[in-house]
Amino acid sequence: MDSINIKQLAERLNLSTSTVSRAFRGHSDINKETKEKILAMARELNYQPNHMASNLRDKKSRTIAVIVPEIANNFFSRAINGVERVARDNGYHLQIYLTNDDFEREVSFMSQLHNGRVEGIIMSVTGEANDHSYMHKLRKKSIPLVFFDRTYDDVKASKVSTNDYESSFSATKHLIDRGCSRIVYLVVNKNLSIGKMRMQGYKDALEAAGLPFVENLVIDCSNELGKNLDILGRVFSAIRPDGVFASVERLAIASYYVCHNMNLKIGNDIRIICFSSLEIASLLNPALSTITQPAYDMGMEAANILFRRLNSENNDDIIEHVVLESELVIRQSTLGS
Amino acid sequence: MDSINIKQLAERLNLSTSTVSRAFRGHSDINKETKEKILAMARELNYQPNHMASNLRDKKSRTIAVIVPEIANNFFSRAINGVERVARDNGYHLQIYLTNDDFEREVSFMSQLHNGRVEGIIMSVTGEANDHSYMHKLRKKSIPLVFFDRTYDDVKASKVSTNDYESSFSATKHLIDRGCSRIVYLVVNKNLSIGKMRMQGYKDALEAAGLPFVENLVIDCSNELGKNLDILGRVFSAIRPDGVFASVERLAIASYYVCHNMNLKIGNDIRIICFSSLEIASLLNPALSTITQPAYDMGMEAANILFRRLNSENNDDIIEHVVLESELVIRQSTLGS
DNA sequence: TTGTACGCGTTATCAG
DNA sequence: CTGATAACGCGTACAA
């Protein structure tokens, strides 16, 4: 009933465990006939080598981990999709860990994973704290780490990002070109390096157009829809912005709800653009202008970097930094009708 | 530099490995002072028990697997979210496997997982084949399996589903009540049991209203957007349906694109409703009427069933079948304006 | 309270 | 070509 092991299989065949083992691993000479006999019997008894034992033996778990803030999110789920693709191609298994933007959890996950459970980690950080020393400590254990999208700049590791600064600059410039002069910048976490990069693009685009940067137009938001509706409701009433640049998708979504409530005509009264991986942006009412990140490719690229490292003979901890390009897609929400 | 093991740690402390081991595992009496000394040193050297070894020792991997067709999909990503929540609460790790609706891959994953790598499996099937004998074979190994949403009826395992039949009946009835008489039913895979259940609800609602069931109004679609646009473009031109009941979200999305192209006014010329887990259904143009499945809860429930089984002392293979309720949310796409 | 010794299931090495 | 043996790192009887 329960799993059979190599010893029992060997007994059934009147062979030694070593011979049976050889039948499964490619190398080591073995008689063709006996090999076939072994494999046949294995199939019949549904035997497969126990992974925990093999892993212990050669210190390889053939598993990698992905740590992300959330999964019910277009960007991250597509990125994971990309990672999975590469992991599978390499014959690796994939474990996922969700931090829900909880720094404690991030630390806990990272610590747990340094036990031989996984051979490498791909991660998009919470950014909820400034003390990343725990990471430096762990980094010494030399298990490869690759950041994507949301990174800690003070941690020495490979990174996959997009051209956030340029995209933000273009998006903001686009709003300005469409006649916006009071553009709010919506952000969840200003500590994140990508938050900073994106804001810098926004700032510089304003400056380039001779518009002042106003601290009040930078709006700190949340990850909870309810809170965001409150915040944005107040802001839109008080400031009456004519442009909205949302650094993440959910803030644009919240803006849509608020505008619908306030009877603001998106695209005319107020123009909205955001970073987003939403496939159906063009089906929204009105169609949403987006900066679309290549989520799937980012996941693939992060995984490729990781496996390049895992498959390399030498243990040089080569740091790679790959930048992929986002695409600015203009739709009704910034054009109007 | 590399990971330290229990032996080395013991040496540093002039203790035996057993004592050190005891410091980590709760039971077995141990001097409080020595325990603290050990833990302190462990922290300093960043020691953590090797999981592969522990797992081999007590034959527990503390890992479960989720096998789903895809992850870049609102329904599945939320379901995984629910599973993760429960897994984490139970101190378990989570591995994910994506079949991309490829039956071969499903078989391959299932086989690989019966090596002690995971203790249980949660799965939503591809439904691409009719021969599930491979599963029966594996089932004998008695590693717990829980299906959710998409199941194989001929496999004896616990299941979490929604009231597909009733929802479909109500949705179809709603379309009829709104005056539709030529309602197409869009489906990707008629082999799937949920495909059948949903279609039966559709059929029975037609009959209850005295409308004929027309074979031609059941449209076989695909998972690829391009193909669906072709198929639906042809169908909408030829049949001129006044109602669309899409068994999955992506088919409603494709319908939207086609209607926009053909200048059909959704909600008036043609009413659309579908199964969907799209958060922002109300922001679409027009707002999409949906049958919303409790994806997150389904994932949680599936995981709860699995852990109830894993944590139970006796190995009785109790089969549970939980049915959660979907919610019918009427919006503009079936109301018109 | 602590130490000794064995086994979990594999596989590489070394003999034969 | 095949068999015996040791070792991967840990945890637990059992002994002290």
In a few lines, what is going on in this structure?
Chains A, B: InterPro entries: HTH_LacI (IPR000843), LacI/GalR-like_sensor (IPR046335), Lambda_DNA-bd_dom_sf (IPR010982), Peripla_BP_I (IPR028082). In chain A, 45% of the residues lie in helices and 16% in strands. Chain A is an alpha/beta fold.
List keywords for this structure.
homodimer, 337 residues, alpha/beta, 434 Repressor (Amino-terminal Domain), Rossmann fold, 6-stranded parallel beta sheet, 6-stranded mixed beta sheet, 13 helices, 16% strand, elongated, DNA-binding, DNA-binding (chains A, B)
CATH homologous group name of the largest domain in chain A: Response regulator
Biggest pleated sheet of chain A: 6 strands, parallel
* Overall domain count of chain A: 3
Instruction: Write down the CATH topology of the largest domain in chain A.
Output: Rossmann fold
Helix content of chain A: 40-55%
Strand-pairing-aware structural class of chain A: alpha/beta
Greatest interface and its residue counts?
A-B, 55 and 55 residues
Q: How many beta strands in the DSSP annotation of chain A?
A: 12
Low-confidence stretches of chain A: none
How many H/I helical runs of chain A? 13
Shape of chain A: elongated
Oligomer classification: homodimer
Mean pLDDT of chain A: 92
User: What is the second-level CATH architecture of the largest domain in chain A?
Assistant: 3-Layer(aba) Sandwich
What is the C-level CATH assignment of the largest domain in chain A?
A: Alpha Beta
Radius of gyration from the alpha-carbon trace of chain A, in angstroms: 26 Å
Helix-strand sequence of chain A? HHHHEHEHEHEEHEHEHEHEEHEEH
> Strand percentage of chain A, roughly?
15-25%
Keywords (chains A, B): DNA-binding, Transcription, Transcription regulation
Domain HTH lacI-type (chains A, B): 4-58
GO molecular function, one term (chains A, B): transcription cis-regulatory region binding
InterPro entries (chains A, B): HTH_LacI, LacI/GalR-like_sensor, Lambda_DNA-bd_dom_sf, Peripla_BP_I
